[in-house]
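User: Show me a protein chain along with its predicted structure.
Assistant: Here is one chain, sequence first, then structure tokens.
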Amino acid sequence: MSELTGLTIAAARAALEKKEFSALELTEAYLGEIEGANGALNAYVAVTRDKARDMARACDERLARGEGRPLEGIPLGIKDLYCTQGVHAQACSHVLDGFLPRYESTVTANLWSAGAVMLGKLNMDEFAMGSSNETSYYGPAINPWRASGSEEKLVPGGSSGGSAAAVAARLCAGATATDTGGSIRQPAALTGTVGIKPTYGRCSRWGIVAFASSLDQAGPIARTVRDAAMMLGAMAGHDAKDTTSVDTPVPDYAAALGGSVKGMRIGIPREYRIDGMSAEIGALWDKGIDWLKASGAEIVEVSLPHTKYALPAYYIVAPAEASSNLARYDGVRYGLRVAGDDIIAMYENSRAAGFGAEVKRRIMVGTYVLSAGYYDAYYLKAQQVRTLIKRDFDSAFEKVDALLTPATPNSAFALGAMTDDPIAMYLNDVFTVTVNMAGLPGISVPAGFDARGLPLGLQLIGKPFDEANLFRLAQALEDAAGETPPAQRWW
């Protein structure tokens, strides 16, 4: 890790303003780190070296004129789910081979307007379907962390595994990600980074390849709470091109940091103490409770009685929406095309060859639960459960300002450990899916390490569009836990 790539977004931005180094020098430092590490970590599936240098030079010109914007000169990695004009955007799927969008997603356009520099596109589970980044057509991303005394490769979580791995390994200053059932918060927890899934509608979904449209939401993964606040402030905002985008002002999240949490009421949902939860996760949760209590917050036990139904309901709703969204990939207009005797055979051949096993599984499940005779029994029932989950949160937030829970049921696990057991893999989302089902904001903050020296995270869940208070509470946790050191380099 070079001296420059060791800087947080906030520190790098301040140094750029003082002209201690140039945006081009900072970008070159990151490109050098990618060159040296990506062969081992597989975090990037495309590196945009020339584009990054051009963007950095333009940033230096603005900085020289005293026209620096909030993220001027900050090099970021972009999850492959985001469409980037003229640049590889394949959702890490074979079915989208060769797709170069002619347009820019709203979120990435917002980042470029704030002065950020694009380093490249980051690895992910295919179409964001996975919890370990092992379903990618480009192979798994690797967690830069390793257990003490072990050479075993670990997963970085998913689906935003490449984003989390790149941030943790200092291959970018921050990264965009998306969260459908925990795909920002879970990988952040497994890599010792900060990840926030904002309220549904806070960030535009336009130009982001859809998985489950009523659940997907864009957000950042960064090294610190302040960095995440700076990134979300640039990413968020109303977009007329997205009918689910909410027209509400975006606060100055960074300005909210450092404020007192004294008197805030923090709910502890009793249903999150699940059977079989490891003693380490329970102890970490108790430590987080003590930290917030010491900061002046009041701890209140609350009940979310329908929590136990969230995971099965999610794995009905999400595949159902995926089966609809992925119907467009047929080999006709773009991407992979495998010829057949007629057009139906071409559809079948292209989809059979283009989609991986997990994506096929979810399409089949989704098609089944939407089919005649099963729609009422499965999909409609899952939507009713979703309403009850949202009602549970509404009731809890009448008494408290935010909730504190674990982020994951375990630390990073070995590559291949769960690939043959989909149910075990899905259980990685047990603490996160409720937030998506209710459309709420949630943030994962590094809070300690397990006995093997691997990072663990705590999750804060907030009221709709109350990200500012979430950041304030997250800062209190981060201050109490102390700075998370970078992973010891083995690559």
